Structure formats: structure tokens, C-alpha cells
Amino acid sequence: MLQQLHIQNYAIIDSIEINFSSHLNIITGETGAGKSILMGALNLILGERADTLVLADKEKKCFIEGIFKTNHAPVKEFLLNNELDCDEELVIRRELAVNGKSRAFINDTPVTLNELKQLSSLLVDLHQQFDTQDLGNNDFQREVIDALAGNTKDIEQYQSVYKNYRNVLKELETLKNEQAAANKEFDYNKFLFDELEEANFSENEIEDIDAEIKLISNAENIKEILSSIYFELEESEQPIVQNIKAISHKLQGLESYHHNIEPLTKRLQSVQIEMQDIASEVSSINESVIYDVEKISLLNERMAAGYKLLKKHGVTTTAQLLDIKNELEAQLDKVTNLKDDILQREKQSAELYNEALKIAEKISLKRQKQLKPFEEKVNQLLKQVGMPNAKLKVDIQNANNLNLFGINNIEFLFNANMPSGIENNNQRFEPLRKVASGGELSRLMLSIKSLVAKSVQLPVLIFDEIDSGISGEAARQVGIIMKELSDAHQVISITHQPQIAAKAETHFFVYKEIVKDKIITSIRQLNGDERITTIAKMLSGEKPTAAAFENAREMIGN
């Protein structure tokens, strides 16, 4: 509830402080006294944009502060999510400096205008005479029916499944796009891969073939040189291996004469063994080198195939060619895997859709059950508030696709002048937003909110002159509805109707006065006698008659 509103230096308000009660608060006053100025100031702490023109004293800042008391779960959630102090008492302040700079605070913490609007929407429901956009809004209309049907938990469950379903659909669409792109190149990539797979080159094979071709092509020259080397090592008149062996024996005979001779002998023996091994390997290589015309032909064919692929793919080594083959294989596997992933997502999306549809149908059924009782109650209330021929009808249709709130499209239809006896003639009903006047919408909104208030916890309800255009019994009935509404909710209403003012728990009177040669707006809470006088004046003018006083006492008493 809004406990206190403090306004300073706003328009013709110097400084006022209003302490509201927890039930029905009525604000009255002469036309032009400043009731609309109060609403303008209140709008500032609700997040509306400010204008320096509202500064009464151009040398002082404007200050509006609202103190709320709330334990409403969504309010606490907002405060926690935005790292704001979360106490039962909540202070919202708005300041407008002389330079035009505006600042907003929640519990003394600076916040953005958007954050202020979000919080205020949870605290205050402000309904003004021509502020009827919500009622014509399909989302609002659906919220009304769901509130009465008790669909909150079902919708939360549904939305959890629906969001998962939408996420899977997005993933599925992404996979299909990837598949479509991959399919465009699949055949060509398959051809390239098959070509490399068929060639079946092993690691470094092309480089090895090149070396082998060079070896075989130069076989005769190589064998001649190797034979010559072997001859010098083992078969000449003075073979190197034998000479080293002889030198080693000679040196060995001197070991007893010098201690450094023995290491030299061992080194020569090692050289001898190494030279013998070299000679043996030279001989082995010589025997393996064979000039083979047929093999050269086969190697040249293999080499030509390798060079062709190297050139085709713009690389220079077998390793690079194999990397390309592996990459092509991965791309082909990806297409195959995409098909599997798509099938999995399609199955998953179908399961989620069916699950969401089942919950949506349950929600829809509960909505359908509320339509007739809702229409009857609203239409009865419309008669109460002076609209006996007005009829509201709720049209609920299944949508083509699931949406965030189920499977229904809901539209409030209205006829302000329905002749009796043809209530079922659907042709006479039109969408509410197209045909209802401002006054009709205001009374309809009050009727609907009074019904919804019994099902959900509404924020502070503020009605700004929604009773315009009614009087007498209709105004009295509006007052009765407001009074009933205020049993469980705080209601603040600005009115010109004495029948409504008489229902107040707390009655405030707005008036103008001259202070220091300046006209300012003030407000005060009326006591019992003042209330009677004020209502009597609302009934018969500035100088009320005895009958008016008597009527005022009776209205307040009732």
C-alpha cells in the first residue's frame, strides 16, 4: 500500500504530505483546485518523464517521495534481482533539479527511469479517465481470464516446456541451414575425397618415390662408385682395412714402452671394425641397387598421379595432401552427423510440442469454463453502474500455432446498446477497443478489476475521475464496487460524485489558497463534520440546503 506521498515544489504545490489509509481513500475538490496536479506528481515516481516547467520555484529542486509498505513477492524479487535493499517499507523518490536534470531513487539507491517504471508497475495500478489502452489489449484480456481461471502455475509450467520447445526449434533450424550449406558442396567434396582415398598415398610416399626414381635412374653410376669404394676398402693390393689392421698390430707391440700407446691401439682397432662394417654395408647397398625398367615405369606412373593431386590441391608435400583428405573426411562425416542430429532434434521437438500442447489444452479448458460466469458477472456489474444495455462477450479461438501463453487467442467483444432478447446475435458484437467510449471503458475496467481482485493480489489501485459522465444510482453503485474492492486492496480515487465520496474510509479535500501573495494547492484530511459539509456542497452547491446536509448524513451513514 501507499502509506505516504510527499510533494514539494511541483506546479502550484509548495509542499504537501498525504498519509493514506489502507482501504478506500477518496480525493475531492473544486475543478481546477489541483487534483490533476497530484496525479501528475504521482506519475513522476511511477517513472514518467519530467519537465522543468513543473518547477513552482525555479531556484529550488522539485521533490516527490512515496513510501510504500509491501510484502508482494514480485516486488521482493525485483529488488533482489536489482541488488536493492529489500525491506517491508519501500521508499521511491524522484528529484528534478533547476537545470532540468532528473534523478530517481529506490531506497536511496540511484536507479534508471526504466527500473523505476518496472518497479512502479508492480506497486501501483493507475487508471485515468481516458487511460483505457490496457482494457483493449489482448494480453490484458488474457491475463484477466487466466487470473479468474487460476492458471498461474499451469502457465509457468507450460512456458518452461514451450521455451525449451522453441530453443530446440532454433537449434533444428540452425542444423538444417548448416546441412543445406554442406549439401551444396557434399558431392564435390565426396569426389575429391574418393579420389584421394583411391590414390591411397601413405605418409611421405611421394617424396620417397621421388628419391627411389632418382636412385634407380642412376643405378649404373652408383654401383660403379660403390664397387670402387668397396675395392679400396677390402680388395685392392693394399686394402685400407688390412692396412689399418697392420698398423694396429705394430702399435700394439709398443704398448709396454709407453702408457699412452694402449689407448691409441684400441682406437685403431675400433676404426678397423668400423671400416669393415662400412665395407660390408657398401657391398650390401651395391647388391640392392638394380636398374629395373619396369619398376621405374611403375614408379613414374605413381609419381605422376601424386604430382597431379599436389597441383590440383595447391600443395607441395604428401603430408599436406593427407591433411586435405582428413579435412574432407571430417566434412563428409559432419554431413552424416548433421542428419543424425536433425533426426534427434525433430524427435525432441515433437515430444516437447506434444507436452506443451497437452498443458495448453488444459489451460484452454480452464479458460473456457470461466467465460460464461465471467460474462454474466461483468454484465450484471455493468447494469449496476448504469449501463443496462451494455454486454461484454469473450471470444476465444484456437490459434494456428502455440504461443507463449498457450493455444488461444482471446478477444473481448462489446455492444453498448444490445436490445433485449437477442443477446446471442454475435453479429452485433465488435472488438472492445473499436467500439467502447472512454466512459464505458472506465466503468467496464472498474467492473473487471473488482472481479479479478478476488482472485489475485493487485497493487495499489488508483482511479482518476473514471466516474465522469455518471450520476445518481449509477454513481452510487460505482461507489459500492469501490468500497467492496477496498476491503482487500488499497484504493485511491479522485471523484466529483458525492455518492462515491460518501463511501470513503478516508476523505481528502484539495483546495487552493493564497500564501504570501502566491496561489498554492493544499490538501487536508476531512473529519466527520467536514465530510458532511463537503458532500452536501457536492450535492447542492456552495451554499448547501438543510436537505442537502440531511442527504449527505444519510449517504455517509449508509
Q: Care to give the gist of this entry?
A:
May be involved in recombinational repair of damaged DNA. This protein has 17 helices and 15 strands.
Question: What global shape is seen?
Answer: elongated
> At the fourth CATH level, what is the homologous superfamily of the domain at 1-127 and 460-526?
P-loop containing nucleotide triphosphate hydrolases
**Oligomerization:** single chain
The major β-sheet equals: 6 strands, antiparallel
CATH third-level topology of the domain at 1-127 and 460-526 = Rossmann fold
- Strands of the widest sheet, in order across it, are 2-1-4-5-6-7
Please give the number of β-strands: 15
List its traits.
six-stranded antiparallel beta sheet, Rossmann fold, six-stranded mixed beta sheet, about 550 residues, 17 helices
Topology readout:
Layout lengths: L1 E9 L2 E7 L4 E6 L5 H11 L16 E8 L3 H9 L7 E8 L5 E5 L2 E3 L1 H11 E5 L9 H12 L2 H48 L5 H13 L1 H17 L4 H13 L8 H28 L4 H21 L4 H67 L6 E13 L2 E10 L14 E2 H4 L2 H15 L7 E5 L7 H14 L5 E4 L3 H4 L4 E10 L2 E8 L2 H13 L5 H12 L1
Parallel strand pairs: 3-13, 3-14, 8-12, 12-13
Antiparallel strand pairs: 1-2, 1-4, 4-5, 5-6, 6-7, 9-10, 10-11, 14-15
Helix pairs in contact: 2-3, 4-11, 5-11, 6-10, 7-9, 8-9, 11-13, 13-14, 16-17
Structure, described:
It is a single chain. The protein has 558 residues and is an alpha/beta fold. It is built from 17 helices and 15 strands. Helix content is 56%, strand content 18%. One of its GO terms (molecular function) is ATP binding. It holds the Pfam family SMC_N. Residues 1-512 form the RecF/RecN/SMC N-terminal domain.
